[in-house]
């Protein structure tokens, strides 16, 4: 089968389409998925550049990618809740397991796979898993009560945009931080109550911070004794004024993904797709994400 292979750590030019062995028979607890699309995430760029090499045993040559949407083509003997032909989504922790999704067929444990939202095209569903699970799990870690206020930084990014929508569904009042005034309408459309820019944050006001932009200064918006969760481990805000600070690392979670897919089908969560790239132009997709200003997900299609 064809896959986008990272030959050695480095720039986007190290990505190329190669023939690799196709998984044929799934393990008893696993399924095979014929990929409709993978999505590109910042972690793929970081892994490609070797930034995670110190805490991962997975090494090139390897297939990158955490997000996949596609069709089940085979199920292991112990799998009871998925069938051949099902449209599914999954988030695969590629950095830890080496199971990359930039491939025509992906073998994954059934427990991390969920039915795809029926209201989306098979490919577009690939925009949901990593960003959705990250937003959901970070909000869980923040554990703010209904009616509380939260500042979400990077509010029109992949994780931020889903976090804004999920926070509203949890009854939180959302202050959205965006870098540029041109993103204000988008943040409001996602459900933000108020939009601020990084230089104009409220002071010691909100109950919680969900930090996705890598801007630790944002902690100044949190009230004394409030809570902060960051998803950017390299830019953790220093604790101050009794504020609890935690880092959230996304975890594989089939049931959590299923819950997110149901919200999409209920029209309560909207996914944004920026552009589709054939596997052959994966390097271009990596360059586009690195350049910034992308609003919505970049998808890779076999
Ligand atoms: N801990 C985890 O498990 C986990 C999971 C997923 C992602 N992450 C990390 O979380 C971060 C966001 O991921 P993502 O997929 O949402 O990325 P993304 O789609 O690129 O979104 C990032 C957003 O933040 C904005 N931004 C960047 N710097 C900013 C600043 N100084 N002030 C305000 N906004 C700023 C970007 O704007 P521009 O486009 O204009 O630059 C963009 O809108 C990445 O660092 C990623 O590695 C961590």
List keywords for this structure.
302 residues; alpha/beta; Quinone Oxidoreductase, Chain A, domain 1; Rossmann fold; 2 domains; seven-stranded mixed beta sheet; six-stranded parallel beta sheet; 7 helices; binds NADP nicotinamide-adenine-dinucleotide phosphate
**Low-confidence runs (pLDDT<50, min 5 residues)?**
none
CATH fold-level topology of the largest domain: Quinone Oxidoreductase, Chain A, domain 1
Order of helices and strands: EEEHEEEHEEHEHEHEEEEHEHE
What is the count of β-strands? 16
Beta-strand content estimate: 25-35%
> What shape does the CA trace take?
globular
**Helical segment tally?**
7
- The CATH class of the largest domain: Alpha Beta
SS-derived structural category: alpha/beta
Biggest sheet character:
7 strands, mixed
Overall helicity: 10-25%
| CATH superfamily (homologous) name of the largest domain | Medium-chain alcohol dehydrogenases, catalytic domain
Count the domains: 2
**Associated small molecules:** NADP nicotinamide-adenine-dinucleotide phosphate
Describe the protein.
- This protein has 2 domains: 158 residues, Quinone Oxidoreductase, Chain A, domain 1; 117 residues, NAD(P)-binding Rossmann-like Domain (Rossmann fold, 3-Layer(aba) Sandwich), CATH 3.40.50.720.
- 22% of the residues lie in helices and 29% in strands.
- The protein has 7 helices and 16 strands.
- Strands 3, 5, 6, 7, 8, 15 and 16 form a 7-stranded mixed beta sheet that branches. A 6-stranded parallel beta sheet has the order 11-10-9-12-13-14, covered by helices on one side. Strands 2-1-4 form a 3-stranded antiparallel beta sheet, with no helix packed on it.
- By secondary structure, the chain is α/β, with parallel strands linked by helices.
- 48% of the residues are buried.
- β15, α7 and β16 form a beta-alpha-beta unit.
- The model has no long low-confidence stretch (mean pLDDT 98).
- The protein binds NADP nicotinamide-adenine-dinucleotide phosphate.
- NADP nicotinamide-adenine-dinucleotide phosphate (NAP) binds next to α1, α3 and α4.
């Amino acid at each position: 089968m064809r896959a986008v292979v990272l030959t050695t750590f480095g720039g986007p030019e190290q990505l190329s389409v190669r023939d690799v062995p196709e998984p044929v028979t799934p393990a008893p607890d696993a399924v095979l998925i014929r990929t409709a699309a993978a999505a590109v995430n910042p972690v793929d760029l970081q892994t490609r550049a070797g930034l995670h090499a110190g805490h991962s045993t997975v090494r090139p040559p390897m297939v990158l990618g955490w997000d996949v949407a596609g069709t089940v083509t085979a199920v292991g003997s112990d799998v009871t809740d998925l069938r051949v032909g099902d449209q599914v989504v999954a988030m695969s922790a590629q950095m830890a397991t080496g199971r990359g999704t930039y491939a025509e067929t992906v073998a994954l444990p059934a427990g991390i796979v969920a039915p795809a939202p029926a209201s989306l095209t098979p490919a577009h569903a690939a925009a949901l898993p990593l960003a959705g699970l990250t937003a959901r799990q970070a909000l869980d870690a923040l554990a703010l009560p209904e009616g509380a206020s939260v500042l979400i930084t990077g509010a029109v990014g992949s994780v931020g945009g889903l976090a804004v929508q999920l926070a509203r569904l949890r009854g939180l009042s959302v202050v959205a931080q965006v870098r540029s005034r041109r993103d204000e309408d988008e943040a409001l459309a996602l459900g933000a109550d108020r939009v601020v820019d990084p230089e104009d944050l409220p002071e010691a006001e909100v109950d919680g911070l969900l930090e996705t932009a890598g801007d630790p200064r944002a902690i100044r918006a949190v009230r004394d004794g409030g809570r902060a969760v960051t998803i950017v481990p390299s830019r953790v805000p220093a604790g101050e004024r009794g504020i609890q600070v935690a880092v959230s690392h996304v975890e594989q979670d089939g049931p959590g993904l299923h819950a997110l897919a149901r919200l999409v089908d209920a029209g309560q969560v909207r996914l944004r797709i920026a552009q589709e790239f054939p596997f052959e132009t994966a390097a271009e997709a990596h360059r586009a994400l690195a350049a910034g200003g992308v609003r919505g997900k970049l998808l890779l299609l076999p």
